[in-house]
Design a protein that fits this description.
The complex is a heterodimer of chains A (about 70) and B (about 270). With about 70 residues, chain A is mainly β. Chain A has one helix spanning about 20-25, and strands at about 1-5, 10, 35, 40, 55-60. In chain A, strand 3 and strand 4 form a beta hairpin. Chain A is globular, with a radius of gyration of 12 Å. Chain B has a single domain (about 10-265), classed as 3-Layer(aba) Sandwich (Rossmann fold), CATH 3.40.50.720. Chain B has helices spanning about 5-10, 10-15, 20-30, 40-50, 85-95, 115-120, 130-145, 170-175, 185-190, 195-215, and strands at about 30-35, 55-60, 100-105, 125, 150-155, 155-165, 220-225, 230-235. Classes of the chains: A mainly beta (about 70), B alpha/beta (about 270).
């Protein structure tokens, strides 16, 4: 199935979970990344069970400590 | 107090906006904003808030201006290297707009002083560069019911959210706990594009002005992210306030402020 990850169209296996996607995408600091699906924030507790659907739009949200 | 002719002219582009008008400009001039961190985010925010005529602006920072700051901290100039950032920032703000009362705090914000400092302000703007400060500001503002704008930047990305404590989700509702030291790269380690600080710091200034004037919808319950490489803004809807949050739920686990260990590199004088 096709989903959008960080603005890019991607072919992924059907029913991929958020945890599997994080691993597959080699996300930086995977233990601390937050995720939104279709512009809704996803709780980390659901990462292992939440299956993505065709057309979902996924964004990785990172801790950003900069400012000065 | 009626506006002087000079004020009418200075603020004419605000006054003409139906969302602000004379009433809104009065609110800005009677308002107060505390900016914590006189750096990348704090610099543009301080410039715009001073230009907007915010009645009282507090600026807190323990550091001095360093050459490596000038790529993004646009309130300081080359001649300011070595001066306390709060002094340099205050001087620029007063030069832009003598109407503004500027209060400086040349010190690190800690659990000991933050409550006393934020008390006097209507709105707080987090322009700090480390997670211990970001969590401390969040927790203190939640405990004091002080509305604030959180922001962070790194490389070509930035994000921000506005928090009205006990109404909208706080920083800790989203980013639960302090990441371990060195788990997340800092701007010093990973870099940041200078204008990103300008974009995100200016958005923070907009939120402060909107808060003071009551115009529009604040960025509450949402996290705005911006990626300069793809030029895309996203607004993520956040979960409701307080659900299991350690500080802003109705039965919080955290009831006292925490000074998390600062990354050692943040303490080297004159290197920030």
């Amino acid at each position: 199935m096709r989903i959008t990850v960080s603005g890019e169209n991607k072919e992924v296996k059907d029913g991929i979970t958020i945890s599997e996607l994080i691993e597959q995408e080699n996300v930086e600091t995977p233990e601390y990344v937050s995720v939104s699906v279709n512009e809704e924030f996803e709780q980390r507790a659901n990462f292992d069970t939440k299956q993505l659907k065709e057309g979902d739009v996924v964004e990785f949200l990172y801790f950003m400590g900069g400012g000065r | 107090m009626p506006f002087t002719n000079e004020q009418l002219e200075r603020y004419s582009r605000h006054i003409i906006l139906k969302e602000i008008g004379v009433k809104g400009q009065k609110k800005i001039m009677n308002g107060s904003v505390l900016i914590i961190g006189a750096g990348g985010l704090g610099a543009p925010a301080a410039l715009y808030l001073a230009a907007a005529g915010v009645g009282k602006i507090g600026i807190a920072d323990a550091d001095v201006v360093d050459l490596s700051n000038l790529q993004r901290q646009v309130i300081h100039t080359t001649a300011d290297i070595g001066r306390p950032k709060v002094e340099s920032a205050a001087e620029t703000m007063r030069a832009i707009n003598p109407d503004v009362e500027v209060e400086t705090y040349h010190e690190f914000i800690t659990s000991d002083n933050i409550m006393d400092i934020i008390r006097d302000y209507d709105f707080v703007l987090d322009g700090t560069d480390n997670f211990s400060a970001k969590f401390l500001i969040n927790d203190a503002c939640v405990m004091a019911d002080k509305p604030f704008s959180h922001a962070g930047i790194l490389r070509f990305k930035g994000q921000l959210m506005t928090v009205i404590p006990h109404e909208s989700p706080c920083y800790r509702c989203v980013f639960k706990t302090m990441p371990p030291k060195d788990a997340i790269p800092t701007c010093r380690q990973a870099g940041v594009i200078g204008a990103m600080a300008g974009v995100i710091g200016s958005l923070q200034a907009l939120e402060a002005v909107k808060f003071l004037t009551g115009s529009g919808d604040l960025l509450t319950g949402k996290l705005l992210t911006f990626d300069a490489l793809t030029m895309k803004f996203h607004t993520i809807n956040l979960p409701p306030r307080g659900e299991g949050c350690a500080v802003c739920s109705d039965h919080p686990e955290i009831t006292e402020l925490i000074d998390y260990e600062q990354p050692v590199c943040e303490f080297k004088p004159g290197q920030n």
